Amino acid sequence: MEEFDLDCVLQWRNSEHVRRYMYTRHQIQADEHRAWFSRKSIDPAWHLLIFEQDRVPQGYVSIHVAGPGGVAEWGFYAAPDAPKGAGKALGIDALDHCFSTLRLQRVWGQCLASNLASVRLHERMGFSREGELRNHHFNGQTYENVFWFGILAYEWPQARTRLLT
Ligand SMILES: CC(C)(COP(=O)(O)OP(=O)(O)OC[C@H]1O[C@@H](n2cnc3c(N)ncnc32)[C@H](O)[C@@H]1OP(=O)(O)O)[C@@H](O)C(=O)NCCC(=O)NCCS
């Protein structure tokens, strides 16, 4: 992700399609977004990526490597108008990057139990559902359960092949 991606990413992040499944759901203003990018883009623990198909930006991926040992949390969203299947393609590229380029050992992610597309995507990609945190997120009105997913480096090649066949 570069400075010139800021407007596009802000538009995606503020769309109802994405916002409703995030922990923070307010409309993010341009200055808040810019300040967030200024912090993260110089922090070596954070990798902010744009997913492209045929050179068209179709999604955003963050990878946060916490400490030594190659363990990272990922986050992602597809552009609201991305074609069906974009999530899967984004996931494959992201995990290839995690395990082949960054040489990570483990990638984990959390998602609201109500986020069926993300739950399905994690499962299809070979993540194990490692936990369910009950009433973990208060959305301002109700409490929501959160699923914890994880995949290890040695699991990815087989999961990748399964995904592509
Ligand atoms: C999660 C997200 C990236 C998935 O992208 P996508 O383009 O819909 O993904 P795909 O089309 O590749 O579908 C992936 C799988 O999820 C399934 N799926 C997609 N939308 C679904 C829905 N609303 N309910 C149930 N399953 C769904 C697809 O059928 C597919 O499974 P299959 O291969 O068994 O058919 C996208 O919906 C998104 O950006 N959501 C908002 C942000 C978000 O939730 N980010 C993740 C936070 S944890």
Q: Please name the CATH architecture.
A: 3-Layer(aba) Sandwich
Shape: globular
Helix content: 25-40%
Low-confidence stretches: none
Structural class: alpha+beta
How are the strands ordered across the major sheet?
1-2-3-4-6-5
Average residue-wise pLDDT: 97
The fourth-level CATH homologous superfamily is: Gcn5-related N-acetyltransferase (GNAT)
**Proportion of strand residues:** 25-35%
CATH level-3 fold name = Aminopeptidase
The end-to-end span amounts to 30 Å
Major sheet: size, sense and barrel closure? 6 strands, mixed
Instruction: Determine Rg (CA atoms, Å).
Output: 16 Å
- Number of DSSP E strands: 6
CATH class: Alpha Beta
Query: Helix segment count?
Result: 6
Note the run of SSEs as H and E. HHHEEEHEHEEH
Number of domain modules: 1
Which hetero ligands occur in this complex? Answer: coenzyme A
InterPro entries: Acyl_CoA_acyltransferase, GNAT_dom, PseH, Ribosomal_N-acetyltransferase
Protein name: UDP-4-amino-4, 6-dideoxy-N-acetyl-beta-L-altrosamine N-acetyltransferase
Organism: Rhizobium altiplani
GO molecular function, one term: protein N-terminal-serine acetyltransferase activity
Word description of this protein:
The protein has 165 residues and is an alpha+beta fold. The chain has a single domain (3-164), classed as Aminopeptidase. The chain is 36% helix and 33% strand. It is built from 6 helices and 6 strands, in the order αααβββαβαββα. It has helices at residues 6-14, 16-19, 30-41, 86-101, 116-124, 156-164; strands at residues 46-53, 56-65, 71-78, 106-112, 128-138, 143-152. Strands 1-2-3-4-6-5 form a 6-stranded mixed beta sheet, with helices on both faces. A hairpin with a 4-residue loop joins strand 5 and strand 6 (143-152). The longest helix is centred in the middle third of the chain and has 16 residues, at 86-101. The mean pLDDT is 97. Coenzyme A binds next to helix 2, strand 3, helix 4, strand 4 and helix 5. Coenzyme A binds at residues 17-18, 21, 76-78, 82, 84-88, 109, 111, 115-118, 120-121, 124.
